From TrEMBL:
The keyword Transcription regulation applies. Keywords: DNA-binding, Transcription, Transcription regulation. Coiled coil: none annotated. This is Helix-turn-helix domain-containing protein. SMART domains: HTH_ICLR. GO terms for biological process: negative regulation of DNA-templated transcription. Residues 11-72 form the HTH iclR-type domain. InterPro entries: ArsR-like_HTH, GAF-like_dom_sf, HTH_MetabolicPath_Reg, Tscrpt_reg_IclR_C, Tscrpt_reg_IclR_N, WH-like_DNA-bd_sf, WH_DNA-bd_sf. CDD domains: HTH_ARSR. The keyword tRNA processing does not apply. It comes from the Bacteria. One of its GO terms (molecular function) is DNA-binding transcription factor activity. Residues 73-250 form the IclR-ED domain.
Length: 271
């Protein structure tokens, strides 16, 4: 019968092997001294684990140098990864905490073509029913709070491409002025002319210089005006966006060659 110390040692060995594999993958290759320094694992253990990982086909030593690199076999480890499941599990606690602080529903919005789509939400947990049929909702980039936040903080080349696709030439200058105002304000704000008459503010979730997703907050202006919403809710909204940004950065470090999926199925038009 395996004793508790033996089980703990086995678990630690597995964790260390995964740490080594993740470090080699994130750094695109590393020497033994670099792995010792970056992981804190003793050199004899690093050498032993590298030998095991090499025998299993997950790493190899570059014949032109002393660097260890991952092999194509590591792709199999991520083949079962489901982004939507990850996003729901990751954003769920963050959105629930945000709801408790502000009392209004929020959505994680991601770009899909020339619109921005709901990918996760705390609306089911919110006592305020705003657009209960939110699954798959999509919003116009140039008029919605989330779309404006995306356009305001995405890279310039991407912004130009998206504006060309979704904004008539005669309206482009007006949209650019609104995006300038959005950056000065610090959040996107929904066009009041959009139907139905609900309000929304939104902030970007950044991944380096790109927008990974947008976090919005939806409210009823007749109950609480946008100025009060911004004064009361903007700080917790930004805290939640920062927590999501950390999660996306961790995901990106594990899959540096991949961009987070942004496509979404068709759905009802969102406010």
């Amino acid at each position: 019968m395996t004793t508790a110390p033996r089980r703990e040692e086995s678990v630690r060995a597995v964790r260390r092997a995964l740490d080594l594999l993740a470090t080699i993958n994130a750094t695109r290759g590393a020497t033994v001294p670099e792995l010792v320094r970056n992981t804190g694992i003793p050199r004899p253990t690093v050498l032993r684990l590298l030998s095991t990982l090499a025998e299993a086909g997950y790493v190899l030593r570059n014949p032109q140098g002393r660097r260890w690199e991952v092999t194509p076999r590591v792709v199999r480890l991520a083949s079962g990864f489901n982004f939507d499941t990850w996003l729901a599990a990751t954003s769920g606690p963050i959105l629930l905490d945000l709801l408790g602080k502000v009392g209004w529903p929020s959505d994680v919005m991601m770009l899909g073509g020339t619109e921005i789509h709901v990918r996760a939400s705390n609306r089911p947990q919110c006592g305020v029913a705003i657009e209960a049929n939110f699954q798959g909702m999509r919003s116009p980039l140039a008029q919605s709070a989330s779309g404006r936040a995306y356009l305001a903080w995405c890279p310039e080349a991407e912004r130009r491409r998206l504006l060309t696709l979704c904004v008539p030439r005669v309206e482009e200058r007006l949209v650019l002025r609104e995006l300038d105002a959005t950056r000065r304000r610090g959040y996107g704000m929904r066009d009041a002319a959009l139907k139905p008459p609900v309000g929304a503010i939104a902030v970007p979730v950044m991944l380096g210089g790109s927008v990974a997703c947008v976090l919005d907050l939806v409210f009823l202006p007749r109950v609480e005006p946008v100025e009060r919403i911004a004064a009361r809710c903007l700080a917790p909204l930004r805290e939640a966006a920062a927590a999501l940004a950390t999660a996306f950065a961790t995901l990106h470090a594990a899959h540096p060659a991949d961009d987070p999926p942004t496509g979404s199925g068709a759905g009802a038009a969102s406010p």
